[in-house]
Design a protein that fits this description.
This protein is mainly α. It has a domain at 95-242 and 284-301: MetI-like (MetI-like fold, Orthogonal Bundle), CATH 1.10.3720. Helices cover 77% and strands 0% of the residues. The chain has helices at 6-30, 36-63, 67-73, 85-93, 96-127, 133-145, 148-162, 168-192, 196-204, 209-220, 222-237, 241-246, 255-261, 270-290, 292-301. Helix 8 (168-192) runs antiparallel to helix 11 and helix 11 crosses helix 15. The protein starts with 5 loop residues before the first helix and ends with a helix.
Length: 305
Amino acid sequence: MAPVDTASAATLDQAPADAPARHTGHGARRKVRRTRSDWLVVVIAVVGAIVIAAPLLLILLNSFKSPADYASKGPLQLPIHPYFQGIIDFWNRVDFPRKLWNSIFISSLVAVFAVALSVLNAYALGIGRVRARTWIIVLFLLGNMLPQEALLYPLYMMFKRVGLYDNVWAIIIIFTVIQSAFGTYLLSSVYGTFPKEILEAASIDGAGRWRILWRVVVPISRSTLSVLMIFFFIWTWNEFLFPLTFLISNDNQTVPVAITALQGQRLMDVTTTSASALLGLIPTLIFFLIFQRTLTRGITAGAVK
């Protein structure tokens, strides 16, 4: 009787058992089926996307439509020939490049200043030893919840007396304070859960408070600060009430104010209104597309890595 190779036998015995297991594993990956709830979520997401995109598509459609086409075929029909006169008319009437620069200048400075002020406030409240910390945070929260209409007249009188009325710096100061109230409330709760071991290690290495802030706290919370800066920019860009009240001269007005500046004139038509809305939307859309990854990473990554 021939001797049996135990190693070969073990291999032969295990091979058929392992092969189906491997095949089953791949098959399990391929046979993943979506449940009804998954498809329901997909359908809801698609419907929501269509609802959100419909006004944007309507603006885009009517921006390149002549008044005659709009009057004869309505807002939902495609234009017969591309019509650019509405965009040209709005561009020239309101001096759109000037308004665009004012909005970019104001929104950018507010975003930077508000984030810097929020970091300083939150560092003192969340990490530093400040008395009545809870009451101060509640005060910031109440200030953030206060309607802007209640601040309009006091701020008008104050900036009128200091000589900053009809000056872009009035809007920058106002919204830096308003946006930093929200940023302080958010970052103070984030910094309140900051790992103390990291701060103690930096302090043992000889780092002072300012060095700990700019070399440890800010780099770790960079994702949250990036999200705040993007939101502050967009929120300030879309503001209408304060720029309308404080920026009365044509050279200082912003894009949202310029869009509504011609509503009362007879030469203003629906196609020109759509063109103005399109020109006001394009800069924020470009800004969002540029910083989309930063916004997504900041939301998903959290404040502390």
